[in-house]
Every structure is written in structure tokens, then in C-alpha cells.
Write a structure and sequence with these properties.
This is F-box domain-containing protein. InterPro entries: F-box-like_dom_sf (IPR036047), F-box_dom (IPR001810). The protein is 30% helix and 24% strand. The protein is built from 16 helices and 22 strands. It has a 14-stranded parallel sheet. Strands 6-5-8 form a three-stranded parallel sheet, with no helix packed on it. Strands 18-20-21 form a three-stranded mixed sheet. The chain starts with 9 loop residues before the first helix and ends with a helix. The relative contact order is 0.05.
């Protein structure tokens, strides 16, 4: 018996609508410069299919909770004002996801204060549970801080649970925000008292900040389940970082893209931070030489753990020294690595008995001293479900050495947009098919796939990156 979409129960169809809406770009990417047509974007597009879908879409208020507001008056007037009104009408009293962004290709306001924009943000702030402020250089820092101050003035303590702030200014001093009565710290004044600001930030459980931070002592860092800290030119003291970790024992996802200073010597005993719920760690922007000092503080629980690491162009990642102790007390089952080489892949298999999926991009060719015969003589009781290598140059001899390790079984190997080499020479693309068939005949137990175009990456479904695009940046 076949079931069509039209025969699905209302609740299931509404859930599918949610999935479709969440998978679509927001208005920042929906409108190109010069366009004068107001496009039907989700969920409005869903309501145009048929009367049944229209009824479901209009009666499901949560579908309309995402509100996009541009800092450009022309873009708002041309496109977004009507969409905002439509969403607010059908969202009714549903808590809102508010996204404020600087658009590309549209004129900016000539006024320091865009009065209609501030009035709208103030009106919606009390209903907002998720706030995403995506600022670039189209305005000065003062304009962006005024918008941020307006939002926080309108917030209701306890309502805001997800806060994402990013700016791209070169002004180093614009990195921190603070209350107007905070005279002890650097940063830009949001024109509201400490008690009001902290009562709002205390309710946040998901915090993504890039080059725009609450003070390190803020209650914004207490009780978090997800924390992503990024920012060029921003440094954090090791003691402040450890205090932040201790203030969020239920942390599930942690991302660090800041430099750490005032680091205790490695020989000094430390009291680790229990993080029993930790499931994803992204340190792909942390220098390799700082990994050991960072991870000595971590005491993860028994949950499967994803991790993202990177070897920079002028770095050398020493797995056993820099990550070995952390790996030994973790249950790492997924690894994303950028800039690694084949010896790192073998090292990860040795150090991670629970590893199921390994994704590597921009893989480096092997160091000349790598002894493949020595690798083959090792015995590893490992079962890797998938090895995915993308945008890399690969020696076929390395792949053969990996799958020839006694006790090591790799179910699927995917080579995406890779340059293959054999016996020191590049393999022409028109000969890769013959090479692939030969490898399949020699190793029928392995599903070996060569992809020539960009395909969905396994990382897209992981929590280690806020978005897959972050992994390639």
C-alpha cells in the first residue's frame, strides 16, 4: 500500500514542514542585489501549494517564528517588511527567532540610528528566545552596538535562551560588551545597568560569539549546553577559560577559536573539569602546540564524542603527545581533521578504539620517512565504518597500507575530489576507473568510492560545527 504526501496525518505533515523550513536559507541569502521581486520563501511557499497545505501552514504558528530583519532600509522596504508582517500575523504569540543582519549589495542607512529598525527590534525583543546578530563592516561599531543595546533593553529576563553574535570589525576594542555602570572592564557600553544585562544573559543556554563577547566573568557563561568562542585578535586567560568550563558542567558542545595566554606550565598539577555530557569539541583553530595544555583540564564522560582538529601549514601535530592523554579518557567515535597526513590517520586508529568515522580534508602527502612496511606489520583490532577524504592528494600505496593492517577493517572509503598518485606519479582521471576496479577485485570486502564533484559530507550531520561551511573556512 502506497501513501502519498496528501494522505499523511496533519501532525506528521506539519513536522515535515518544520524540517523543510529549517533546511532553507534565510533572507540574508535569499535576496540578491538588484532584485525587485518579493519571492515566496518558506513557509509562505508551502502555503501556496494547495488548500490543505495552506490550512496546515497557517495553523502551525511555530512555522512562522523566524523573523529576518535587515539593517538596510531599502531591502526591508522592497522585500522584508511584508514578509515580517506575514510571519508575525501567523506566528501569533509563539516565541520568536530574531535574525538581524547586514546585507550585501544594498545601500546602508545614512543615519547613525535607523529609527524604524530600532522600534521593530524593541517591539519584538520581549518575545525573542533566539537572537542572531550577524554584523559585518557595512556600518561602524557604534551603529551595531546601538542595535545590540536596543535589543537587550527590550528583552525579558528568562526568555532569551539562545544568543549568537558575530561582527567583522577591525576595531579590537569592540570585542567586549558591558553594562553602563561597569567601570572596571574594557568594552563598549550597551546603555543598560549590570543587573538588567546579567539577568538577561543568565538565561542563555546556547552561546555562539565571534569577536563580540560578554565579559569573561559574566553569568552568560553559566549553565551552558553549547558554547562556541571565536575571534581573531581575541585572547583569553587560561584561568578565565577554566572558570567558564567549570560554570557549565552540563556542556554538550564546545568550540574554541581563541588564543589562550597565561598558561600554567605543563608540569603543574591541575584539577580537571568534569564534563560528563560532552559530545562535540571543535579545536580546529587552536594551535597544535596548545592542545595538550587545553585538554589536560577536560574530564569527559562516557558519551560518544566528536572532535575537530587541524594541522596548520607551518605546524606539526604530534598526536600521542598533544592529544593522547585526552583520547585515553574519552570515547571519541568521530574525527574531522584538516591538513593531516597518512601517519596521522594510522595514529588516530591506534589511539581511538571507538572510532567509527574519520573525515579528512586537505590531506597532506606523507612525510618521506613514513615506513609503510612497518605499518602493515602492526596489528589493530579496529572496525572503521567510513573513511572520507576530500580535496586531497593521496598515494594509492597509503590506502593499500591502511587496509592491509591486520585486524583493521574499513567498511567504506570515499575519495572526494582527490588527486590520486601511484609510484610517485599522478594517476590520470581517465585511468582512475581501471585503478578502482582493480582495488575492488583485490579487496572485495571494502566499498571504495571515487567522487569527482562536490558531494554532501558526513560532517554536515555532526554537531562539531555550527554549519558545514565552518569546516572549510
Amino acid at each position: 500500500m502506497h501513501t502519498t504526501v496528501q494522505n499523511l496525518p496533519l501532525e506528521l505533515l506539519a513536522y515535515i514542514f518544520h524540517l523543510v523550513r529549517d533546511s532553507q536559507p534565510c533572507a540574508k541569502r535569499d535576496y540578491s542585489p538588484g532584485s525587485t521581486e518579493t519571492r515566496q520563501v518558506y513557509p509562505a511557499a508551502l502555503s501556496q501549494v494547495c488548500s490543505r497545505w495552506r490550512s496546515i501552514a497557517f495553523s502551525t504558528s511555530a512555522l512562522w517564528s523566524h523573523i529576518d530583519i535587515s539593517t538596510s532600509i531599502p531591502l526591508n522596504q522592497l522585500h522584508l517588511d511584508a514578509i515580517i508582517d506575514l510571519h508575525l500575523t501567523h506566528a501569533r504569540q509563539t516565541p520568536l527567532e530574531l535574525h538581524v543582519f547586514d546585507p550585501m549589495g544594498y545601500p546602508v542607512s545614512s543615519s547613525h540610528i535607523n529609527k524604524p529598525l530600532h522600534e521593530l527590534i524593541m517591539r519584538l525583543a520581549s518575545r525573542t528566545y533566539s537572537f542572531n546578530f550577524d554584523a559585518d563592516r557595512r556600518y561602524g561599531p557604534d551603529t551595531h552596538h546601538a542595535i545590540l543595546g536596543t535589543f537587550f533593553k527590550g528583552c525579558v529576563p528568562g526568555r532569551l535562551t539562545r544568543l549568537m553574535m558575530r561582527h567583522d570589525h577591525d576595531d579590537w576594542n569592540s570585542g567586549f560588551i558591558k553594562a553602563k555602570d561597569d567601570l572596571d572592564n574594557d568594552g563598549r557600553d550597551l546603555d543598560l545597568p549590570t543587573e538588567q544585562l546579567e539577568s538577561i544573559l543568565a538565561g542563555v543556554s546556547i552561546l555562539h560569539v565571534t569577536r563580540w563577547f560578554p565579559q569573561w566573568t559574566s553569568r552568560a557563561y553559566h549553565g551552558l549546553t553549547e558554547l562556541r568562542l571565536n575571534g581573531l585578535f581575541t585572547r583569553i586567560k587560561e584561568s578565565d577559560l577554566v572558570d567558564i568550563l567549570r560554570s557549565s558542567p552540563g556542556l554538550r558542545i564546545f568550540e574554541l577559536g581563541l588564543d589562550t595566554d597565561n598558561i600554567l606550565p605543563m608540569g603543574v598539577p591541575v584539577t580537571t573539569v568534569p564534563l560528563n555530557n560532552l559530545e562535540a569539541v571543535n579545536v580546529s583553530l587552536v594551535l597544535c602546540e596548545e592542545l595538550a595544555a587545553l585538554f589536560r583540564w577536560f574530564a569527559p564522560g562516557s558519551k560518544p564524542l566528536q572532535i575537530a582538529i587541524r594541522q596548520g601549514e607551518h605546524e606539526y601535530l604530534r598526536l600521542k603527545k598533544q592529544l593522547g592523554p585526552f583520547f585515553s579518557r574519552s570515547c571519541v567515535n568521530r574525527v574531522y581533521g584538516r591538513g593531516l597526513n597518512f601517519s596521522h590517520l594510522v595514529g588516530l586508529l591506534e589511539l581511538l578504539p571507538h572510532l567509527q568515522e574519520l573525515v579528512v580534508s586537505w590531506m597532506r602527502l606523507n612525510p618521506s620517512f613514513l615506513n609503510r612496511e612497518e605499518i602493515i606489520r602492526r596489528t589493530l583490532d579496529r572496525r572503521l565504518e567510513r573513511l572520507y577524504i576530500t580535496q586531497s592528494s593521496i598515494h594509492i600505496e597509503d590506502v593499500l597500507a591502511l587496509i592491509s593492517i591486520p585486524g583493521c577493517l574499513v567498511n567504506t572509503i570515499i575519495l572526494n575530489q582527490c588527486m590520486l598518485c601511484r609510484d610517485g606519479f599522478d594517476v590520470p582521471q581517465d585511468q582512475e576507473g581501471v585503478l578502482l576496479e582493480g582495488l575492488k577485485q583485490e579487496h572485495p570486502e571494502i566499498n571504495l568510492i571515487i567522487q569527482y564533484t562536490e558531494e554532501p559530507s558526513p560532517v554536515e550531520s555532526w554537531d562539531v560545527f555550527a554549519s558545514y561551511a565552518d569546516s572549510e573556512s
